[in-house]
Specification:
Radius of gyration: 22 Å
Helix content: 40-55%
Number of helices: 15
CATH class of the largest domain: Alpha Beta
Strand content: 15-25%
CATH architecture of the largest domain: 3-Layer(aba) Sandwich
CATH topology of the largest domain: Rossmann fold
CATH superfamily of the largest domain: Glycogen Phosphorylase B
Structural class: alpha/beta
Strand order of the largest sheet: 3-2-1-4-5-6
Number of domains: 2
Largest sheet: 6 strands, parallel
Shape: globular
């Protein structure tokens, strides 16, 4: 008998995190011979988009709302769907992508006695608190923190992203080692591989000269990401390369970035802003010479594994990043995969001398590419899914 699995994403089908981190996992699940059916749920906040089609998969879209009162019904609608599916076909496991999705399925998993697995498990409530998005006494913080504690107790499997956080869950919080499976954000190295033809095309399209040094950043500014520190770092690169530096940013927040960069002294011809589909990201990475990864370092960031880092390394890009970011900061130091900045108020030319040394040794950087192949491969996900699925037959 094959298994029916319910997979819940907290994000919409077209959101970047779904495209980069959820859909590849669904493809791995669909290729497992012991899986008969996958019931895939997405929470759609921008209207209902096209359904995602995949062998063995049925896609359900929960239409959400920005209105706090209406958002409370997301959970009820999701539970109603899962109950109906369970009554008709049985569900052998619920897989939740992240603690926010885990919170939505805690009650139904317990009520129907369906084993629960939570991947990309992080202390999300603490992220929001430390980055000033939520307050200590806010209802959102208290509810999610309580849900995270319950998830740790109830889930059969917890898949943290980093070794550092897994050690904390074991030693400090006393979780059973058998329920923990470290699963960092992974990439298909061949999809993100450096391509010289793409490099020339993108640079020509953006009007970037062959001798210009391009630093790329993908993402937002502020909140859980650095703000003024990021702008200072970009300006340091601009000064170091004496008019031969171009900043390339891929982000949906193009207007915010344009205002911020202009206010910090960048002229229009010194940067490019774009927002592209997941399938186009690799071409833009190929146009760059190094990358910025700028999560704001706070105590709970020991638990994160930014997908952008794996993408950068797969493309052979050295990274400039803060200290204290998951396993990646120590990996970057120990394996010479970029530069780790301990104090962004004291950035000097040594950062870019080091980047130049790495950049000139090879483009793409062979050590970055090899690390991505060895330690950010979807083989890790496939292995952990196989163990989870095998456990359901015991």
């Amino acid at each position: 008998m094959g298994l029916n699995i319910c997979f819940v994403s907290y994000w919409g089908i077209n959101e970047g995190l779904t495209q980069a981190t959820v859909l590849p996992h669904l493809r791995i699940l669909s290729n497992n011979k012991d899986v008969d059916r996958i019931y895939f749920f997405t929470i759609e906040r921008q209207g209902l988009s096209a359904e995602f089609e995949l062998y063995k998969l049925e896609h359900f879209r929960i239409a959400s709302s920005a209105n706090v009162l209406r958002k409370a019904f997301d959970k009820r609608r999701l539970e109603a769907h899962i109950k109906a599916l369970y009554a008709k076909n049985s569900i052998h496991m619920i897989m939740a992508r992240g603690v926010m999705a885990g919170r939505l399925v805690l009650n139904i998993s317990n009520q129907l006695s369906i084993p629960l697995s939570i991947e990309s498990f992080e202390p999300h409530a603490d992220y929001m608190l430390e980055d000033g998005v939520w307050k200590l006494n806010s209802l959102k913080y208290k509810l999610l923190q309580r849900a995270e504690r319950q998830e740790k107790r109830q889930a059969r499997f917890i898949l943290p992203l980093t070794n550092i956080y897994a050690e904390e869950l074991l030693r400090i919080e006393g979780l059973d080692q058998e329920k923990l499976m470290i699963t960092p954000c992974c990439v298909n190295s061949s999809v993100f591989a450096y391509n010289d033809v793409d490099r020339q095309k993108v640079r020509a399209k953006l009007g970037i000269k062959p001798d210009t040094i391009v630093g790329i950043y993908t993402g937002k500014i502020g909140g859980i990401y650095l703000d003024q520190e990021a702008l200072q770092l970009f300006n340091s690169a601009r000064s170091f390369y004496y008019g031969k530096f171009h900043l390339l940013i891929l982000s949906p927040d193009k207007n915010i970035w344009r205002e911020k960069l202009a206010a910090s002294g960048f002229s229009e011809n010194e940067f490019s802003l774009d927002f592209v589909s997941q399938g186009q990201v690799a071409a833009f990475l190929s146009a760059a010479d190094f990358a910025f990864s700028l999560h704001r370092p706070t105590p709970s960031k020991k638990a994160i594994s930014p997908i952008k880092n794996a993408e950068f390394w797969a493309n052979g890009l050295s990274i400039i990043m803060p200290d204290g970011i998951g396993d990646d900061s120590e990996i970057t130091k120990n394996k010479n995969l970029g530069v780790v900045v301990e104090d962004f108020n004291k950035v000097d030319d040594t950062v870019f001398y080091k980047i130049d040394e790495l950049r000139k040794s090879h483009r793409p950087s062979n050590q970055c590419v090899q690390f991505a192949k060895d330690f950010r491969s979807f083989d890790i996900v496939q292995s952990n899914y196989s163990k989870i699925i095998a456990s359901l037959f015991n």
